[in-house]
Amino acid sequence: MLSENFEKRLIKLWKLVDRALDGMLITSPENVRYLSGFSGTEGTLVLTRSTGFFLTDGRYATQAKEQVNGFSVITFRDKFRELGRLIKKLKIRSLGFESGNLTVAKMSDLEKNVGSVALKPYAGKLDSFRTVKDAEEVRVLKKAAFIASESLREVVPFIKPGVREIEIAAELEYSMRQKGGDDTAFRTIVASGYRSALPHGISSTKKIEKGDFVLIDYGVVYQGYCSDETCTFVVGKPTAKQKRIYGIVKKAHDLAIKAVKSGKFLKEVDDMARNHIGKMGYKRYFNHSTGHGIGLCVHEQPLVSFRSKGKIQRGMVFTIEPGIYLPKWGGVRIEDTVIAKSSGSEIITRSDKTLISVGL
Ligand code: ZN
Ligand code: ZN
């Protein structure tokens, strides 16, 4: 028996794909987890419109029996041979598959084993069916964001002149794991001084210095779901220029969040941040999208960009993260994760976003 959430997710999947398909092959770990609950790394789903099978290897046999919701579990020795056998047995004639997730070698194995079955590739479309989160996902996403923000709060007193960026990153990651995180959502970025001008600067052995901006972009994975938040601190008292740049980014961030509401175009949210930064003269120093969807993947649909065509739907969860990066001088990014509602949004990342002086 499928639980209600999984049943609804399956319905969403079948609505999204071609009516002529009588089978779907799900291979990406995120979609396998989304549809079955399995959290391991070797899992494949073969779905028909009336039934479903979960395939894994011997290492995961026990875990699959405990986690997989509503599907018969098959343990294989040779994955593609087993897939071929099952697809023939189920009399599938037209099979959709995740082309973004199948290597050329695996594709060739699949073709060899399924005989005359018509294979229909699905790329981006299958990622879009996770954009609207259900109540259970929202609960887990909020918990992930909470664990991360609490961890940062504990680590802030540790940010001082003389401490290396990687030491701060390590403290933060340790704290997130201590609080129940499964992993970090991505490599923690602690970028200070001139390095804060690198939008994806990772963390180096550079020591924090007085007067530095310290940009911390970090996230945790909790029960499979990611958090994502960026805070930019200043070591000591900010200069007038630091205050000004921070103020522009903060205003862009606030304007964009204010614009979030179901029914609006995603592009309108990007416009709010981008236009403000542009008006203040820093257009070319904001060189990435305003935000991205987040869930089982740290970067997923929808993209909050000037290129986005879609509209915001209630229950979408995405980041708002404008920034200004001045080469050799430094940069500021302020990032929160929000849930879109019918009237506005709810911010789930918890850290204070006013300019905070540290290391005093
Ligand atoms: Zn981030
Ligand atoms: Zn982000």
Structure description:
This protein folds into two domains: 4-127, Creatine Amidinohydrolase, Chain A, domain 1 (3-Layer(aba) Sandwich); 135-358, Alpha-Beta Complex (Creatine Amidinohydrolase). It starts with a helix and ends with a strand. Helix 4 (79-89) packs across helix 5, helix 7 crosses helix 8 (165-178) and helix 9 (240-259) runs antiparallel to helix 10 (266-279). It is an alpha+beta fold and 360 residues long. The protein has helices at 4-16, 29-36, 61-67, 79-89, 104-114, 125-128, 135-155, 165-178, 240-259, 266-279; strands at 23-26, 44-48, 52-57, 72-76, 94-98, 118-122, 183-184, 189-192, 213-218, 220-222, 225-226, 229-235, 291-293, 300-304, 317-320, 323-326, 330-333, 336-341, 344-347, 357-358. The longest helix is centred in the middle third of the chain and has 21 residues, at 135-155. The radius of gyration is 23 Å and the shape is elongated. The strands form six sheets. Strands 4-3-2-1-5-6 form a six-stranded mixed β-sheet, sandwiched between helices. Helix content is 34%, strand content 24%. The site of one zinc ion has 5 residues, from loops.
Q: Which helices and strands, and how do they pair?
A:
Layout: H1 4-16, E1 23-26, H2 29-36, E2 44-48, E3 52-57, H3 61-67, E4 72-76, H4 79-89, E5 94-98, H5 104-114, E6 118-122, H6 125-128, H7 135-155, H8 165-178, E7 183-184, E8 189-192, E9 213-218, E10 220-222, E11 225-226, E12 229-235, H9 240-259, H10 266-279, E13 291-293, E14 300-304, E15 317-320, E16 323-326, E17 330-333, E18 336-341, E19 344-347, E20 357-358
Parallel strand pairs: 1-5, 3-4, 5-6, 12-20
Antiparallel strand pairs: 1-2, 2-3, 7-10, 8-9, 9-12, 10-11, 13-14, 15-18, 16-17, 18-19
Helix pairs in contact: 4-5, 7-8, 9-10
Bound molecules: zinc ion (2 copies).
Residues 228, 292, 319, 321, 335 line the site of one zinc ion.
